[in-house]
């Protein structure tokens, strides 16, 4: 007997840009919104009866209409607004997930209407709304960082396939993908995001690293120390290897100066740091 | 009180190519292998003590050494071999996850040593080995398919933001990403993969579609019908919209002939089809 | 004194899909069209006077309208049709360049309306039309090929920075990007493309290679030998290095069996093979 | 009679990172270097005789050795150093082209050894050295800018395929790819680059735009006005369309507030601004 298991559908990557004009000083919000709904959707799978299916085209329209009606503030607020709307107005929709990426722009000069894309990283959030409540995970990705010293890698396990030598000084570089779950919603999402981001950067810079795992734990812990509203941090840290080039063939020393930045393979360290009393995550990470 | 939650680490994207020479008739296996270990790793996170950490560099070496010692047959077998090795030889490693992508090559001419990359799609697998047993998920991604008729979308739910009109004839196009879990391991992984792939293609072609969800369910069901060893299928199907271009401004009809292939946004339909008596998935999908 | 130099403008990447219905047997043409115009465009640059500027939006509309009015046959014919139209109807447009990429689909089963993207490679063409005549360059890219033997690299120049050792047997792999210019237009573009593609593949397979440059020349020569209508071939061949992995640390031989497929850096070999009496290229390669 | 036409070869994308340690204050240079040589290379193409071919592996080694021996200052200086070396030491090499991309890092905190990738854009240069002299083109790409007002598009040419309506207020957004040729080499490449970059941004912000072509010309002119050492500027400006969303179906106005950021197709405006007395470009742009 074959049955339908977990399923969901939605509109992915609706690109919405809002320009707000306060006299000559404009403001730009630039988002990529993905809405995903689930609920009483057995019939559409089994017989193609679409009566429970709000079209993904309608979901896209709703993003644009809500941007106009409600404006776009913090992406977490906009995600919650959309998720509540779908659950609250569509009888068949039991659960809404809204994921948003935000691209940031900085002012180009002082005329108030010219901007340059900051490009450092992407701010992210995922909001879940269903009968069990509301959950928000915030985060960022594409934050590339490097320490040129204060990183060792020694005392590791080894077997017959181990050829790596120990090092007391290496480059440690990674591209941070971080997500954090909230125990309660902060008054100001932007301020919370800024603090968490700062904590990640500060912990990366300050940690004398014996392993990337140790750095990961330090980064997650620092976010929790700085942000009482956050109860869990998940980090995915590729170890972007920088190999010291052997220049001895050319009669040259290379004492931690010239490196080859490799693409693949790469180490990948993933981990979670959380408060012991963190509330149940529910579907927050889905 | 802050604690360490779920964590894992490994070497991602080790690119290994094996050439087997049977006289003049060579054979090529071209893989991208990612190994991920977890277990008693608290100390490395908390204090940077690496004594439980088998370096990711060693994991990479193991992939190459095993390719030589054992050869590469079906990727599922190679993934299991590696996963068992790590769990079986490293005391601190409780769980190994090995994910492999395979790129296929076809013969270029008849000389036996010239090949052309097939490129249609990527074959995938993920093997998990831990104290609870062994699990394998196989799959594929990048399989792009299109039906130019026999697809409707009507009778959907609507609200104040709905502007989409019903259609009785549209292009249905998607890029199939499919994974399937095994209730038991087949004798021949390659044969099983071939049958599952054929079932996906046949169901896509044969289904008169009232919704992409219906097509998804038909595709998953067909795999289960054809492959007794498979107990669960997960599909992620982006709806690659092809919009009929309005040519009326130019005095031209457009009766399902000229389409604009859009990039973003796109619908995204995800779902699971499984046997009612499927065994517990455990960590298979992680 | 500052002046305007060479300039051009157009609409890039108009994605058009045409479905032709011959009873139950449908046919799909899937193109990416980029149109580029130039001519008397000084004023728009200097003063913003757009009176000579046919909007890029109009160019896009023309692509769709022409797909309907004239159908899409060989991409070279469609490119010429569009280029002639812009030069012939817009007084300020002196030169039109139309570049087309074609993605091929194969039948999925036998129902006549289901297709699977072939994905092996992209077929390309660029047509130029101006007062000096019409020129067409055809080509392909993304054709990935590999020889597992019959490739040496020895007897090369060396200096104090040379550490590479000679080899009498290596993997030779590349991703072919090829373009070819026509001395005259063939009766059947599709047939000409098929022959040129076959010549590239055959020459790659048949050449015992002492260097990738030699293989390049053999490939270009073969196209010219097989296709009298073609007068010049340009090839760009990245040397996709496959390095033999040193397994001696593990007590294992590796006699041309296990390779690491590297990403970067890569060799890049570019060259032209042409008939001595090839007509002047004019703007064909721009 | 078939002959060899223009050809060149080299090592593409050698990734070199140099760390300089001034006490606790480290400095990072992060480059992607591509070297390309040409000269007396007929034999290698015709017969596979490699005696004139300096291996691309040696070119890679040279990049790393030179980074150590000479350090990396401005990328233009490093490119010239490498190009002169190859032409000056290899008898068969008549021409060297060295292209470099630079990725910039900013300090992360104040410890002197932690960095965060700036990511705004990539700085570029191409140096050519041969018997006719030395030429340097500098530039940047990936600089994404947007004006939210002061952009019109009216008075354009139209034909039967024109449906675009005129606008007096639109978003103007582009991703700047700019290259500039030097009439003479500046004393400080970094200062010259900074000034040219500033000129591009300032001209984009300051220009009340009647067309993207006009903005392009203003940007190029401004660079020439600010940088006497620069004699020619080439710009490639995709028109990243932001379409006002029609919200009237939902009873909502949209007066330049809510936009859909489209991917494809896009306008593409390319042009050159140069001094009337610019010296001959020779191979500078190849």
From TrEMBL, chains A, B, C, D:
Catalytic activity: urate + O2 + H2O = 5-hydroxyisourate + H2O2
Coiled-coil regions listed: none
EC primary class: oxidoreductase
Residues the entry annotates as binding O2: 56, 239
Sequence positions that bind 5-hydroxyisourate: 56-57, 153, 170, 213, 239
Pathway membership, UniProt: Purine metabolism; urate degradation; (S)-allantoin from urate: step 1/3
A Pfam family the protein falls into: Uricase
EC number, as in UniProt: 1.7.3.3
Keywords from the named record: Oxidoreductase, Purine metabolism
GO biological process, any: urate catabolic process
GO molecular function annotation: urate oxidase activity
Active site: 11 (charge relay system), 56 (charge relay system), 241 (charge relay system)
Residues annotated for urate binding in this entry: 56-57, 153, 170, 213, 239
PANTHER family: URICASE
Function: Catalyzes the oxidation of uric acid to 5-hydroxyisourate, which is further processed to form (S)-allantoin.
NCBIfam families: urate_oxi
Family under the similarity heading: Belongs to the uricase family.
Protein name: Uricase
């Amino acid at each position: 007997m074959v049955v339908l298991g977990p399923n969901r559908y939605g509109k992915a990557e609706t690109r919405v840009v809002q320009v707000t004009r306060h006299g000559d000083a404009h403001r730009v919000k630039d988002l990529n919104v993905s809405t995903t709904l689930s609920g009483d959707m057995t019939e559409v799978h089994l017989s193609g009866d679409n009566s429970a299916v709000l079209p993904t085209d309608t979901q896209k329209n709703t993003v644009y209409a809500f941007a106009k009606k409600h404006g776009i503030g913090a992406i977490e607020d906009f995600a919650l607004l959309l998720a509540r709307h779908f659950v609250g107005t569509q009888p068949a929709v039991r659960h809404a997930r809204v994921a948003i990426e935000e691209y940031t722009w900085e002012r180009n000069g002082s005329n108030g209407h010219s901007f340059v894309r900051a490009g450092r990283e992407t701010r992210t959030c995922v909001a879940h709304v269903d009968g069990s409540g509301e959950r928000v995970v915030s985060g960022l990705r594409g934050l590339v960082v490097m320490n040129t010293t204060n990183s060792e890698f020694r005392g590791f396990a080894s077997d017959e396939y181990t050829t790596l030598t120990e090092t007391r000084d290496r480059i440690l570089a990674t591209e941070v993908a971080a997500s954090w779950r909230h125990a309660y919603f902060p008054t100001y999402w932007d301020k919370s995001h800024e603090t968490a981001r700062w904590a990640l950067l500060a912990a990366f810079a300050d940690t004398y690293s014996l392993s990337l795992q140790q750095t990961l734990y330090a980064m997650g812990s620092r976010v929790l120390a700085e942000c009482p509203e956050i109860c869990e941090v998940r980090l995915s840290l590729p170890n972007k290897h920088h190999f010291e080039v052997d220049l001895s063939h050319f009669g040259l020393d290379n004492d931690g100066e010239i490196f080859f930045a490799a693409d693949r393979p790469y180490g990948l360290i993933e981990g979670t740091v959380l408060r012991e009393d963190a509330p149940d995550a529910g579907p927050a990470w889905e």
